[in-house]
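EI: anyone free to look at a 419-residue chain?
SC: sure, send it
EI:
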Amino acid sequence: MTLPESTTAAQAQPDTNNNDDEYKPNQFSGAIQNKQRIYQSCKVGLGVVLASLTVLIQPWDRFFHGTGQWAVITVVVVILETPGDTTRKIVNRFVGTLVAAVLALLIGTAGHEISTIVFPIGELLVATTILITGVVGRWYSSSPTDWAYGILLGTATYPFMALDALRDDEYTAIFRTIMIALGGLVGFVLAWLPPSVKASDVAQAYLVDQLIDTACCVEAVVEDFLEGKELNRVTDIYAGGDDDRAHRLYKAVTCSRPSLESAVHASKWESSRHEETQSYQVCGLSVRLVLRAIQAADIFLRNGRHPLRSGQIDVQLELAMRELSNVIQKELLTTVEEIGYELPSHLTVDNFPEIDLPTALLRFRHALAASLSSWSDETDVFTSLVAFSRLLEEAGTLALQVKCTVVQNEESTVNSEDA
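SC: here you go
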């Protein structure tokens, strides 16, 4: 993947047949996902056994009026991939159930007392509150809030508890709440019990994959351009048939966005690293913009308008374009090292040009200006070359922003630890 500064255009072509050395997308996040699945499965199994004791031990089952299954259900539902996700769901489930239980006991008991005096006023009261909580709860539970799950669960729980209280069975609401709290406690302890994978580590792995995948995609797109190939359209990545290398990388980065953002969101429930992890979301956005700028070139390089195919691009511009591509890759890959990850063995920055990104951008702009000065008019090929060049410049600028964000974040983390 890496090229010495003196490498010629002919020598710079990648060995596309060497599948052993080709970087596979989502390498780090895929590995951490496998660990998450193993830990989660084992902890759910152990949690179910512990929660089932409330049913298997008959004195406990009789004391809790047969509500022990709610502890089992809670364990299965709340133990998620990371301690942060688990904590968020436990808090939501308990608070939603507790609020629903309190309201159900008040309204249901009041309805029962009223119905003994004036039938069916008590039943109408309970039915009206069920209607109101159903409408209001469903409305707010569909909004993007941290408490959406708790609101939804409370909305679903209230009718059952209110109807039980109306039938003078308030114990069901009380013991169901206790069992949910017990199941949540079991889930919380197991989720934080080692071994576990923190949400901050998951977010970090997804960002590292996005950085490496984008660097490889920059190489793939620029090499295709310099070989005189037409770039495939981004809109074709979901069409039938095999995707090319650039599209596979593009798809990997774009599809990992929800997972990165979810991990960043979960990190605020688990550690003091949330501010550091929050910057990963900003970096992820910039990385995707780098990718978008590179892949947007497909708009300008179709329908036979390729500058190289027309023989209208000089060697100096070609070399400057390759140099800028390599420096963009270097910035993205060294950012991975700044985060603390070791690059795969076949990816190295040792042979990249020993210049910084601003210098590479300046050289490229000079080479582009010199090349365009020989054009007599703005043909379609001229427009294609300028557009591709501008997109490459934009990708370089965004890559530099990512590097600066990560470096500043690492420095602030070190300073806070020293303090």
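EI: The longest helix spans residues 380-418.
SC: 👍
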